[in-house]
C-alpha cells in the first residue's frame, strides 16, 4: 500500500475526530515542557487535514496549546480544561531542577513548575499522550552528563518522560498510573514523531477507540514495522554492500545506522506529504523513535555492532559477521539472535519472544518500592 | 509605578516572560526572562564531535537546520585547526547556503503571516483588505499553503522537516540527483510566483495605500506590503527603538567570488565595520550577573566552561546569559543584516521607518519583508550553481585535538558554536543564539538587553491592553503571543488579547 493510500484511509477518521472536537464537549490540553517546539512544527506539516484546517480547528476549540490557541497567558491558563479529555505533553519534565520548565504562576507569585501541572492534570485526564521522545522517554535532555560536569547529576535537570525515564519506568507518573480511560500514558516516540502519528492517535481516542499499545506504550500500527525491513538500502545490506560515509551509495549500517533496532513506519509513510525520509537521502537512522534515544545509540556515527544494544553483546550475537560483509544468511541469523526472528514467521510484528522477554526485563527491572509513585521533586 | 507581568508568553520556542514597570503611562523598566533550561552544552561534552551536530541540531525544532550547520562548522573548524581536515566540498557549501535560504523564506513567511500579521489584521482591514484574517483570510491561508511547499523542498535534501538529519560535519549527507534539484526549484518557483515580482513593490505599495488589489502583481506581495502599511499607520516606527548597533556573521557566498551577499561585521556610530572571524570572536563575551548560572560560567565563550546552573541564585531572573560585543549590546536579525550590507530595497525603511539604519518596530518588519525578496532570488541562483553530481561529503576525521568556532547566520540573527576537542572527544562546548542577543537579560553593569532597552520609554495607553508592547516583542521574532497578567498596588488585573480579526473587536477582558 502506498504512503498516500495509508494516509487517505485515515482521512475520514481524522476529519470525524476534528468534527467531534469542534462540535462536542471534547477538551484537549497540550502542554510544553523542556521542548524545542519541533513536535508542534511537525504537527503543522500534517497534510490530512491540512495545516490550515488543523490550525483553525485547534485554535478555535482546543482548550490549551501554547502555539496554536487564541487565548494567552493567565486567560489561557483559565481557559485550559483542568479535567481534559486528552492531556498532551511535548517536551520532557525536569524533576531535579523543577524551575527549568515553568508555566504561569503559583498563587504566591512564583513560577509554577511543569511537574506540578502534570501532577495536577494527569489524574484528571481521560487520556494522557506523550508526544515526542522527550515527553515519552525523556529525550535528549535526559541524555547522560558524561563528564560529570558541575554539581548536577548524570541527568542534568532530572529530565523525565511522563511514565518512562529512558527505557525504564517510572517517569514523572508512577508505573501503575492509568488515566480515566484505564489506559496508561500513550507514548509517541520520535524526534519528532510523524504528524500522522499525532493526529491519528488523537483522532483514535476522540472517536472512542482504544489504541493497541506495545510494551513501551506506543500504538502498534505506527511502531511495529522495523525501519530495517522497509529501508531502500535493505538489498545492499543483504549483499554486504556498505557505505563508508553518510550520503554514499550502500547500506549505512557501518556508519551508525540504528535501523535494525528501530521500529516505526516512516520508511513507507514518508515525510512532508510523501516527499522523503532520513535514510532515503543517505542519513543513517539515529533511532529517534526508540526509548533510550539518545544514549542508547550513541555514538551515532559508529557501526552498531560496537554498541551494547538490548543488553546483548552483538559481537557474539552474530551481527559482527554481518558487519564484516557476510551476506544473506548472516543477516537473518543476526536478526534472530537479536530477537527479531519471529516476525519472519508472521509473529507479533517484528518483536520475538526473546526480545519481549528482554524488554520486559527493562520495564520491570526497577522494583515497585523504588518506582512507586515517586515524582522526584 | 505599576508592575505588568507577561507570563507565560506563548508561541515561542522555549518559555519566556516579561516584567514591566510602568510609570505615568510610560514603561520605565523591562526585564526579559527566559524560563527554560535543558543543559545542551553540558550534555554535548564527552561525546564525539560528529554527534554534536546531531544533538545541538535538536536544540530548536523551529531553527532546526541552523544549529546543525553552526555546530558542524565548529567541529570542522576544530579539525582544520588540528591539521586533520581540509574543509568541506565546494558544492556542500553551496547546498548549505541554499537550504538556509529556503529556511529563511519559510521562517519569514510563518512570522509575517501567522505570528506578527494577526497583530495588524484590524489595521490591514482598515486599508480595505480582508485577506489577513488569521483563520479565514485568503492571504493567511495562501501563506500557510506556501510554507508547506518550502518544508517539502527542505525535505527533498534533508529527508524530512523538521529535524532533517542530512546536515553533518564533513558536508551534507545526501545524494540528490538532477531531478531532485529540479523538484526543489519548482517548489521554490511556485512560492516565488505566489509572492510576485520584486520590481512590482512600488506599484503594490501604491495599490495598498489606495485600497486596491491586483493579483497580477503578486498576491503575497500585496499581503506583505499591506502589513507594513498598516504597521506604519499604527505608528510602529515610533516604537521599540534600539541603539542602532548591529552585528551579523554574514551569509550566502557568491559561488564565483566567494563574497558574502550579507556582509560580516558590525554597524555602530553610523557606519559599517567589516570584520574577520577572529575579530568577531575576540569581541564577544558573556555575562551571568542576572542569569541562573554561576559566575564561573561567564566570560569568553572560547574559554568559559559550559553553563553551570544555579537555580536559586539571588537577583537572577533569566535562564539566558547576556552576550556582549566589546561590552555592548548588539541587535541581530534581518534589520541588522540589511543595515550592515547597505540594503534598503525601494527605500522602504528610509521613507516609512525614519531611516534605513533606524532600529524600531516597523523597520524590523520591513527588513524581514525586504529580506524575503532578496533571499528568494538568491536561493534560485544558488540552486542554479549547485551541481548534485559533485562531491557533497568529505572524510571527516575520527580523532583529533583542536579548538574551533562555527559562525553562522540563521533567520533570527547571529549564531555561534564553540568547541574544544581532545583526542576525538568534546571537552568544552558553548552556544550563543540569536534570541540571546536580542532578548537576554541585563549585564553586571546594569545595561539592559536589546529588547529590555527598546521597550523602555514606550507609552502604554491602556495598561490592560498593551498591544504595542506585544508588537515590539514580536518584531524581534521570538514568536511571543500577547497575553498579559497585570499586577498593580491596587490589585491584580488580567488581560486577554486575541489575534485581531478584520471587522472584529479586539477581545479585551479584565477582572
Automatic annotation (TrEMBL), chain A:
Its cofactor is [4Fe-4S] cluster. Keywords: 3Fe-4S, 4Fe-4S, Iron, Iron-sulfur, Metal-binding, Oxidoreductase, Signal. Residues 36-204 form the NADH:ubiquinone oxidoreductase-like 20kDa subunit domain. It is found in: Cell envelope. Its EC number is 1.12.99.6. Gene3D superfamilies: Cytochrome-c3 hydrogenase, C-terminal domain, NADH:ubiquinone oxidoreductase-like, 20kDa subunit. GO terms for cellular component: [Ni-Fe] hydrogenase complex; ferredoxin hydrogenase complex; membrane. It holds the Pfam family Oxidored_q6. GO terms for molecular function: 3 iron, 4 sulfur cluster binding; 4 iron, 4 sulfur cluster binding; electron transfer activity; ferredoxin hydrogenase activity; hydrogenase (acceptor) activity; metal ion binding. This is Ni,Fe-hydrogenase I small subunit.
UniProtKB/TrEMBL annotation, chain B:
It is an enzyme of class 1 (oxidoreductase). It is found in: Cell envelope. Residues 293-317, 490-511 are annotated as: Disordered. This is Ni,Fe-hydrogenase I large subunit. It holds the Pfam family NiFeSe_Hases. Belongs to the [NiFe]/[NiFeSe] hydrogenase large subunit family. Keywords: Iron, Magnesium, Metal-binding, Nickel, Oxidoreductase. Its EC number is 1.12.99.6. It comes from Halapricum desulfuricans. Its cofactor is Fe cation; Ni(2+). Fe cation binds at residues 63, 482. GO terms for molecular function: ferredoxin hydrogenase activity; hydrogenase (acceptor) activity; nickel cation binding. Its main location: other. Ni(2+) binds at residues 60, 63, 479. Mg(2+) binds at residues 41, 431, 485. InterPro entries: Ni-dep_hyd_lsu (IPR001501), Ni-dep_hyd_lsu_Ni_BS (IPR018194), NiFe-Hase_large (IPR029014), NiFe/NiFeSe_hydrgnase_LSU (IPR050867).
Amino acid at each position: 500500500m502506498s504512503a498516500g493510500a495509508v494516509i487517505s484511509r485515515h482521512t475520514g477518521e481524522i476529519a470525524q475526530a476534528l468534527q467531534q472536537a469542534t462540535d462536542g464537549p471534547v477538551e484537549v490540553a497540550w502542554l510544553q515542557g523542556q521542548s524545542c517546539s519541533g513536535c508542534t512544527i511537525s504537527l503543522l506539516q500534517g497534510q490530512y487535514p491540512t495545516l490550515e484546517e488543523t490550525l483553525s480547528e485547534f485554535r478555535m476549540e482546543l482548550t490549551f496549546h501554547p502555539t496554536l490557541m487564541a487565548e494567552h497567558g493567565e486567560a489561557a491558563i483559565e481557559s485550559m480544561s483542568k479535567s481534559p479529555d486528552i492531556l498532551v505533553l511535548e517536551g520532557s519534565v525536569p524533576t531535579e531542577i523543577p524551575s527549568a520548565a515553568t508555566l504561569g504562576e503559583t498563587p504566591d507569585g512564583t513560577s509554577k513548575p511543569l511537574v506540578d501541572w502534570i501532577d495536577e492534570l494527569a489524574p484528571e485526564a481521560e487520556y494522557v499522550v506523550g508526544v515526542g521522545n522527550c515527553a515519552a522517554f525523556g529525550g535528549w535532555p535526559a541524555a547522560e552528563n558524561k563528564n560529570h560536569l558541575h554539581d548536577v547529576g548524570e541527568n542534568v535537570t532530572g529530565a523525565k518522560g511522563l511514565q518512562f525515564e529512558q527505557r525504564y519506568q517510572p517517569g514523572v507518573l508512577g508505573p501503575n498510573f492509568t488515566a480515566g480511560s484505564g489506559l496508561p500514558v500513550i507514548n509517541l516516540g520520535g524526534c519528532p514523531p510523524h504528524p500522522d502519528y499525532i493526529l491519528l492517535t488523537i483522532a483514535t481516542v476522540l472517536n472512542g477507540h482504544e489504541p493497541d499499545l506495545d510494551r513501551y506504550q506506543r500504538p502498534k500500527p505506527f511502531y511495529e514495522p522495523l525501519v530495517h525491513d522497509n529501508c531502500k538500502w535493505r538489498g545492499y545490506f543483504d549483499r554486504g554492500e556498505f557505505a563508508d560515509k553518510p550520503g554514499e551509495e550502500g547500506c549505512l549500517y557501518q556508519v551508525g545506522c540504528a535501523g535494525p533496532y528501530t521500529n516505526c513506519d516512516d520508511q513507507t509513510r514518508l515525510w512532508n506529504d510523501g516527499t522523503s525520509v532520513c535514510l532515503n537521502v543517505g542519513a543513517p537512522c539515529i533511532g529517534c523513535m526508540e526509548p533510550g534515544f539518545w544514549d542508547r545509540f550513541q555514538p551515532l556515527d559508529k557501526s552498531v555492532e560496537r554498541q551494547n544494544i538490548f543488553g546483548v553483546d552483538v559481537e557474539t550475537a552474530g551481527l559482527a559477521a554481518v558487519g564484516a560483509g557476510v551476506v544473506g544468511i548472516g543477516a537473518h541469523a543476526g536478526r534472530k539472535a537479536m530477537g527479531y526472528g519471529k516476525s519472519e514467521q508472521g509473529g507479533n510484528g517484528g518483536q520475538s519472544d526473546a526480545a519481549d522477554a528482554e524488554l520486559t526485563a527493562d520495564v520491570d527491572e526497577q522494583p515497585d518500592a523504588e518506582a512507586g509513585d515517586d515524582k522526584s521533586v | 509605578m505599576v508592575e505588568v507581568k507577561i507570563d507565560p508568553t506563548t508561541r515561542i520556542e522555549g518559555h519566556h516572560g516579561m516584567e514591566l514597570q510602568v510609570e505615568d503611562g510610560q514603561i520605565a523598566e523591562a526585564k526579559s526572562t527566559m524560563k527554560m533550561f535543558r543543559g545542551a552544552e553540558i550534555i554535548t561534552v564527552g561525546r564525539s564531535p560528529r554527534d554534536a551536530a546531531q544533538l545541538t541540531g535538536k536544540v530548536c525544532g523551529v531553527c532546526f537546520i541552523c544549529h546543525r550547520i553552526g555546530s558542524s562548522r565548529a567541529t570542522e573548524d576544530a579539525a582544520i585547526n588540528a591539521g586533520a581536515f581540509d574543509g568541506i566540498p565546494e558544492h556542500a557549501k553551496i547546498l548549505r547556503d541554499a537550504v538556509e535560504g529556503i529556511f529563511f523564506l519559510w521562517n519569514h513567511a510563518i512570522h509575517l503571516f501567522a505570528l506578527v500579521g494577526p497583530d495588524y489584521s484590524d489595521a490591514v482591514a482598515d486599508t480595505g483588505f480582508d485577506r489577513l484574517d488569521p483563520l479565514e483570510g485568503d492571504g493567511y491561508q495562501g501563506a500557510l499553503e506556501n510554507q508547506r511547499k518550502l518544508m517539502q523542498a527542505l525535505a527533498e535534501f534533508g529527508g524530512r522537516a523538521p529535524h532533517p538529519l542530512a546536515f553533518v560535519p564533513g558536508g551534507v549527507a545526501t545524494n540528490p540527483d538532477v531531478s531532485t534539484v529540479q523538484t526543489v526549484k519548482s517548489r521554490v518557483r511556485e512560492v516565488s510566483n505566489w509572492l510576485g515580482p520584486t520590481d512590482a513593490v512600488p506599484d503594490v505599495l501604491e495599490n495598498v495605500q489606495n485600497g486596491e488589489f491586483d493579483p497580477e502583481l503578486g498576491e503575497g506581495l500585496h499581503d506583505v506590503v499591506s502589513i507594513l502599511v498598516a504597521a506604519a499607520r499604527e505608528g510602529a516606527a515610533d516604537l521599540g527603538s534600539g541603539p542602532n548597533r548591529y552585528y551579523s556573521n554574514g551569509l550566502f557566498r557568491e559561488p564565483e567570488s566567494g563574497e558574502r551577499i550579507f556582509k560580516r561585521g558590525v554597524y555602530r556610530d553610523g557606519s559599517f565595520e567589516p570584520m574577520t572571524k577572529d575579530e568577531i570572536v575576540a569581541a564577544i563575551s558573556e555575562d551571568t550577573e542576572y542569569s541562573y548560572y554561576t559566575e564561573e560560567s561567564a566570560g569568553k565563550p572560547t574559554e568559559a566552561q559550559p553553563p553551570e546552573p544555579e537555580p536559586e541564585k539571588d537577583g537572577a531572573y533569566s535562564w539566558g546569559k547576556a552576550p556582549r560585543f566589546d561590552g555592548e549590546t548588539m541587535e541581530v536579525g534581518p534589520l541588522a543584516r540589511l543595515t550592515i550590507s547597505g540594503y534598503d530595497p525601494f527605500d522602504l525603511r528610509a521613507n516609512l521607518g525614519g531611516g534605513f539604519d533606524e532600529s524600531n518596530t516597523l523597520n524590523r518588519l520591513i527588513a524581514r519583508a525586504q529580506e524575503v525578496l532578496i533571499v528568494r532570488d538568491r536561493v534560485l541562483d544558488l540552486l542554479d550553481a549547485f551541481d548534485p553530481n559533485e562531491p557533497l561529503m568529505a572524510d571527516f576525521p575520527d580523532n583529533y585535538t583542536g579548538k574551533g568556532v562555527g559562525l553562522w547566520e540563521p533567520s533570527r540573527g547571529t549564531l555561534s558554536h564553540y568547541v574544544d576537542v581532545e583526542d576525538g572527544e568534546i571537552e568544552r562546548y558553548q552556544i550563543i543564539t540569536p534570541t540571546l542577543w536580542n532578548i537576554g537579560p541585563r549585564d553586571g553593569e546594569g545595561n539592559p538587553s536589546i529588547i529590555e532597552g527598546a521597550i523602555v520609554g514606550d507609552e502604554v495607553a491602556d495598561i490592560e491592553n498593551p498591544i504595542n508592547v506585544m508588537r515590539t516583542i514580536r518584531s524581534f521574532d521570538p514568536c511571543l503571543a500577547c497575553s498579559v497578567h497585570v499586577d498593580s498596588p491596587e490589585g491584580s488585573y488580567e488581560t486577554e488579547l486575541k489575534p485581531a480579526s478584520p471587522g472584529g473587536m479586539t477581545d479585551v477582558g479584565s477582572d
